[in-house]
Design brief:
The protein is mostly beta strands. The protein has one domain. It has 1 helix and 17 strands. Strands 3, 4, 6, 8, 9, 11, 12, 14 and 15 form a 9-stranded parallel beta sheet that branches. Strand 1 and strand 2 form a beta hairpin.
């Protein structure tokens, strides 16, 4: 198994040139699945377009500005990996809003991969920016922390946005959520 992770880590560095195949993840039912054509998330990544992505435990925490999800996005966060996405004022940490856009987050065996999403003022941690609704967010695993900016939800809509829709936590784990309007609590399923 260690050789497999090393191979994926090396391929992740070259993800813009090659797709990674047979990447395992744990689905919403707790079963191991495999995905093909997976792209590695690196520090310069700012848009996740319709497809599969992975954050690997390469020894360096990945930090980025807002990650924008366009189309149907699947994000695998491996055990030991850590991704922090921080939005500027009015921008969410991870933007999932607008028709046809969705995000599904998966973990792996120990569910220890961390995803931290911090919204700027008036923006959700995961979901909509200022005056935008968040929608179509599914969390199947990992250690997820979402902090909404001032006047915004942790997971959902930004300040002044329509009500959030289709937000689902699929497994038995804790999502740390902190928002200001309305206040969000820790979600445990």
């Amino acid at each position: 198994m260690k050789k497999f992770f090393t191979s994926i880590a090396v391929l992740t560095l070259c993800a813009e040139l090659w797709a990674i195949n047979n990447v395992p993840y744990i689905d919403a039912n707790g079963q191991e699945q495999k995905a093909d054509n997976v792209t590695g998330v690196i520090n310069s990544t700012d848009t996740l377009k319709n497809g599969w992505y992975v954050v690997m435990p390469t020894g360096n925490e990945k930090q980025t500005g807002t990650l924008v999800c366009q189309g149907e996005v699947h994000l695998i966060v491996y055990d030991g990996a850590k991704l922090t996405a921080t939005g500027a004022d009015g921008k969410p940490g991870i933007e999932v809003s607008g028709e046809g856009n969705s995000l599904t987050i998966y973990g792996y065996t120990n569910q220890s991969g961390q995803l931290i999403a911090i919204g700027g003022a008036n923006a959700a941690g995961i979901g909509g920016g200022n005056a935008a609704a968040g929608s179509n967010i599914t969390i199947c695993g990992g250690l997820i922390t979402a902090n909404g900016g001032e006047n915004a939800s942790a997971i959902g809509s930004g300040n002044g946005g329509d009500a959030a829709s289709n937000i689902f936590v699929a497994t038995s784990f804790v999502v740390k959520a902190d928002g200001n309007n309305p206040p969000s609590a820790v979600i445990t399923i």
